[in-house]
Amino acid sequence: MEILDTLMQAIATYRYIFWPLFGLLALTLGVIKWWDQVRYFFLNLFCSLPLFGHITRLSRSHESRRAGTGGRIWHPAEEALCGKFYQFHSISNRDADFYLRCVNYLNKVDERGRKPTSVVLWLCSIALVILEAFIFALVLSPFIANNISANQAELSAIVVSVLIGVILVPATHLMGTQLHKNTLLSKIRYWHKEARLEGHAQALVKDNRVSLENSRIDDDAPSYLQMLNRVNHGIGAKPQYVQTVVTLLLIVTFAVGAYFIRAATINAAETQAVNGTPFSQTSAASNASPFELPQQAVEDNQQADKQAAKEVSDNRVFASKLTFIILSVIFIGVQIIGILIGYYRSLVGIESRLAAKYIGNFSSSEEFAAWYAMRRERVERDAQDKLASLQNRMAMQRASSASIAQTDVRTFDDYVRGKQRDKALADDQHQQFNATRATVAQERPVHQPEPALVFEPVTPTPAPVALETAPAANVDEKARIAELGDLTALDDEELRLVAEDLGLSIEALLSRRKVQRVLIKARG
Q1: Which ranges does the record mark as transmembrane (predicted)?
Q2: pTM of the predicted model over 0.70
Q3: What residues does each domain of the chain span?
């Protein structure tokens, strides 16, 4: 085709522009696919830059040490650098139990073994739709504008086919995804109906506590509730068909419209050919014949010629329309392939895609744990190396750093353990708060009518002004000490530094640490 020849010629002419742009597009796709690895690479790169890197910039910080992560004493620059690597450490901090939780999540939503649609399947689906739509668009292009050239008709056909692909590819994929989701909702309703007939059905109420981290929280629940907790649904978990109906209307409109446009085009061509045929007029050759034929013979001959021409025309129209029907069936078949891809390669669980991404191609939990352990050790090694470089720079720039003992140097492992300790402490406080609130709610008495108020004269007493100042200061100091969190990991020297820096009483800090140790010992 001329349009393809023109396109190839344009690529050859502007190859110094086309191929760099094509390479940039491929690089962009690679960055999107391996974004976490790219981010980690640039983090290491920016940490090591000599003039404006993270280490160089943070080493110029002159902020004094303070209580930070894990209740330990940190330089703000050290915490800032460790925090940059900690986000990658938390991503790679996966063990065999996390793999089993992902498997548990996918099993309960009945999506174990499913994988999201790959790039190859997306490209194949797009190519199939565009190729079939291009044939349809070639018929449409003459009707888009009058008096257009062949190149313009081919270009308009390409544009129309791309637009049809943009509409139908996501529509068919969404339809397949909705059909898969409706299958799960139908299972939920069927299992619930069976349980209701047996007399032990539970209400179709979603448990919002269920997540990938807490996938085992509903192990004792029925199968239909386990699946319900992991699928977005409407009232009563009823299937919905909005996307399915819209996609079917689009497919039928394009398929039927393509057939009628092609059929009308061939009918118009045949009508034009019949009007121009020599059999519509008296044959001049018959009048010029040297033999005088009877009038009846001449009319029979013309009738036979007309019949033959009609049969040829009818057969051509029938063959053309049959071809157009086959093309429409092929178009519908291509859309069915897109629907099947969406049905079999979709994940409708709330966190199923994330769970499938973590499991990947690992065959066992041991393989999963070993791979993430290797990745985690790499992050710890790089982070500790960058932290040591930062501490060396700070030691050279700060005269006060020379008085710090070597045992007081913080490590990235200290930061990770402090983060874990803070998280555990926050979870413990949250659980205690929920338990206390539940206890108060259970012990709250039933509402009773309040007794009538009896007003009695009360002799006003002078407020003890002098005695209120000390308790108020005490309460403020206790609140400030409570905000420091866990003090059990600090030694006496570190507590003294905290007391001097925050203006607190060292005795109060020592007492608070002792109480915390007693509580930890009592909890076992």
Answers
A1: 12-32, 119-145, 157-176, 241-261, 322-344
A2: no
A3: 1-33, 475-524
